[in-house]
Amino acid sequence: MSVNRVLEAARSASQILPARRPFRFREWLERESVFSWLMLTPPLLFLLLFLGYPFCYGVYLSFVSRQVARPPTFVGLGNFVTLWNDPIFWQAVWNTFRFTGAATILKLGGGLAMALVMHQNFRFKGATRAVLLLPFIVPTVLSTVAWQWILDPGMGLFNRGLVFFGLMQQGPSWLGNPTLAMVSVILVNTWRGLPFFGITILAGLQTVPAELMESATIDGAGTWGRFRHVTLPLLMPVIFIVTTFSIIFTFFDFQLVYVLTGGGPANATHLMATYAYVISVTTGQLGLGSAAALAMVPVLGVVLMLMSSYVRRD
Amino acid sequence: MVGELTWVRRLLGLWLPLAALFVFALFPFAWMAATSLKANAELYDPKSNPLWIQHPSLVHYIGLIKESNFFVWIGNTMLVALVATLISLLFGVMLAYPLARMRFPASGLLALSVGVAYLVPQTLLFVPMADLINRMRLGDSLSAVMLTYPTLLVPFSAWLLIGYFKTVPKELEEAALIDGASRWRAMTRVILPLCTPGFLSAGIFAFTLSQNEFLYALLFLNTSSIRTVPVGVTGELIRGDAFYWGQLMAAAFLGSLPVVLIYSFFVKYYVAGLTAGSVKG
Prior knowledge:
The complex is a heterodimer. By secondary structure, chain A is mainly alpha-helical. In chain A, 74% of the residues lie in helices and 1% in strands. In chain A, α5 (87-118) runs parallel beside α10 (178-205). Chain B is mainly α. Chain B has helices spanning 2-36, 40-43, 59-67, 70-101, 107-119, 126-135, 142-167, 170-178, 183-194, 196-212, 215-220, 229-237, 245-265, 267-280. In chain B, α4 crosses α10 (196-212). The interface between A and B is large, with 88 and 90 residues.
């Protein structure tokens, strides 16, 4: 028995030595590229099916005329021509820019101020940070419904405050007036997104080395000088990334406007995303809706290119 | 004299701005809670103080529970968020681990495409996505959102986890391999346990994003009993008459509570995930 085992072991040992080893599944599995691709394939297939395919299909749809439950017909650039001649579409484009621009500036300014205030020593700093992030955590639809009630013309908090403090006899119709509706939408987006800027910039501030601040103080820099020439340049990368992210997510925003105004009054707050939704879901023109959604890509691309070239110049 | 000056500075530079920030961030929630706890008579009385509750009443909460499927919606939202988060973490690890720790052809290109996929917004995809879901015969089912939410979350989780995986020294893995462990064992027993904070960050982020999602839920969930909280609230609680705010605010408050509670346990990891990209990148 034991002799056999020794012989067997000797034989299998001699089999390892020859130059051409037999194929072994375990060894094959241990190769870096094999192991990697085995891991990567399932998630990549998932993303191809649920991201890659819809994207390509959306591009295809934008070139056809397709009503719900009817066969598609190829129309070339027809959908884009229709949009080009559609004044509501241009209004939605203009609204999207105004909305994104104003909300981003407000969030950036407010967030920077919030970060500077928070970047001091005080008790319960962690808890304060957690609480101030709440607008960003609570589901947008639910907080937006609360804002709808705050902005209610008759019994809303804003108008009752205005009347109570004697500033007005009767408050304005916040969501019924085109300009005020846009102001309201920007305000609510700012309320929700400001903590994101604040907390992220605060994290950036905490990486500014204390020695740099001290040496600047010794060199005679005041509070403003230290901020302008030490803090701000070191913060620029963080600010750039946060702003870029925020621009993307604000530009493509849907739920806030859908819930707060539905794009009204008279399309005054329609964004490209909500207009694309109305075209494709409400009126059932899937091709035209896809074209309206795709039209956001080049517009956004131009904005991002301008931003990155600005940074490179810096 | 000096002490007095710093006291004033502290008040103007810290406490007053902080108080303003608190009011700015929290007054909508206070207004939500105050509204939900008042009966209609007090709620719509122009002379009463809007931010004060004279006669607390649970009438709107009782109405909400009796007249709508609210708790079913809460259950659906939780279930969908949990499943979507787990799928995203699993796929996120499967993408991030090789991309962060292995060398193979096309890995750079793949990492870049994951980054780009993260930036593709759902507003761009919802029309063809609806078509795809209908053709898979998944329309009007919770599976539809369980499968589509991860498309938003997987690229983000992968991107966050790549950062975490890169912080673990390569020598640890090599040591495990030399000791005879397989790559799979080295990954599951050595590297992944070290990245637990990364999983918590990606997980809590994916969870809050799932709770927040609205567009796909609006497109795919039409039957009341399978709706999530955001679609249920906007689709069924906003009615034509003017006197529904009490119930609506009760729903908004109660609907926000679970996600806020869960967030409060993981704040540290949430903030880490929030700032990881912008500070490290």
